[in-house]
Amino acid sequence: MSKSPLCVLTGASGGIGQAMAAALHDQGYRLLLVGRNELKLAQLSKSLGNQHSYITADLATIEGRDALVHKAQKLGGASVLINNAGVNQMASFDHQSAVDISKTLEMNLLVPMLLTQAFLAQLSQKDSATIVNVGSAFGSIGFPYYASYCASKFGLRGFTEALKRELSDKPIDVLYLAPRATDTQINGVLERAMNTALGNHMDSPELVAKQLVKQLNSRIARTVIGFPERFFAKLNGIFPSLVDNAISKKLVIMKQVMKQTNKGAQHEIL
Ligand SMILES: NC(=O)c1ccc[n+]([C@@H]2O[C@H](COP(=O)([O-])OP(=O)(O)OC[C@H]3O[C@@H](n4cnc5c(N)ncnc54)[C@H](OP(=O)(O)O)[C@@H]3O)[C@@H](O)[C@H]2O)c1
């Protein structure tokens, strides 16, 4: 009997990653769960009946990425790669350190690109393979206090689209999933206060995982979760000045939240 397809899931120890792992488990995938927090990965693996593999790896290092690629190869090679690991730091741009700007671009853009490249040989061995890049609504809408994050996710969206078209004559699909605000630890006090002040809806990680499964099963190239976000992403692409105006009207509220909650960046990216 042939083995079920192997899915490499980065950011598996995080909020969205854990929900994705459970949903992919239910879909019958074999999982290689990736993160830095070994305890969380072990707990997740246990909650899924210890049927899956996991590896602790700092994906910002070449050693971490090599170890992951090697482990996946030993497990028979990946059929699905989900680039879900990511970082965020909401901050006024003038308060963000050079290190935090670099880390944001590294983890959200460079690492998914390098991992994708490193996995292409394995994915090419399969009759059908899929890469899913987890972006953000902020990968289509530039938003105040998310300049570095937006730059990284806009970049990831561009990378996804270009690679999808480059591989369109091969059996490797490249998909882009863009969640909106989701209830995970990536959102601290500041992000939550901002979402409340702006009336932004926060999804559950399980809803994002459900969208992932839907996308994988129906091969939808691009998914932006949530109606207003989907609408504004489209509008921003066609009439960006309308979105400029809508967002600048909210800047007063945003400045108040920034002032009340902190004066700059609230936490360093670890
Ligand atoms: N939550 C939201 O509001 C939201 C909205 C839109 C898009 N997203 C995107 O969804 C994805 C998942 O985010 P989340 O909300 O689940 O955040 P999260 O709970 O903070 O999880 C982030 C994950 O990234 C991993 N990670 C970070 N740096 C790493 C590194 N150097 N090496 C290896 N793994 C690393 C973390 O691993 P360890 O903890 O083990 O280090 C963790 O598993 C991200 O790409 C994020 O940008 C989230």
Automatic annotation (TrEMBL):
CDD domains: SDR_c. InterPro entries: NAD(P)-bd_dom_sf, SDR_fam. Coiled coil: none annotated. Pfam families: adh_short (PF00106). GO terms for cellular component: membrane. GO terms for molecular function: oxidoreductase activity. Keywords: Oxidoreductase. It comes from the Bacteria. Belongs to the short-chain dehydrogenases/reductases (SDR) family. This is Short-chain alcohol dehydrogenase-like protein. It comes from Pseudoalteromonas tunicata D2. The lineage of its organism: Bacteria, Pseudomonadati, Pseudomonadota, Gammaproteobacteria, Alteromonadales.
